[in-house]
Amino acid sequence: MMERILVAVDDSPAGLAAARAAIRLARLCPGALRAVHVLVDGVLVRELERGAGAVGVRERRGQATAAVLRHVVDLAAQAGVAVETVAYEGEPAACILREAAAWPADVVVVGRSGGGPVGHPYVGSEVREVLEFAEVPVLVVPPP
Length: 144
Hints:
Elements: E1 4-8, H1 13-28, E2 32-39, H2 43-50, H3 57-78, E3 84-89, H4 92-102, E4 107-111, H5 125-133, E5 138-141
Helix pairs in contact: 4-5
């Protein structure tokens, strides 16, 4: 039984498709739904934060994270589903796997990137890492 559904979300079409799929699943399998967003802390972002013209970069990134999670909460509310949200900074796959184990999730829902050669499915490195190391089933949702 899937009583605890963890969905990884971002503002990409694939991330939002994963959110919609997780919400549908939560309606079918009543239980807890948790959305996790990971803010990637890359080299460019660190340099921007140190730069003279980068006032407010961290705040704007935090606002963007909050906006994504608010959107997921709104989507879930429209479907009559309650959702908890959590945000992290770091490497997405590691944060998703850590949250799946700590919460603990019965299934992890992630979005599949639309990149790659035309006509061929593409699974990005973060999704591949979640698939490889997750200790629970992983549902990979194609982009719209």
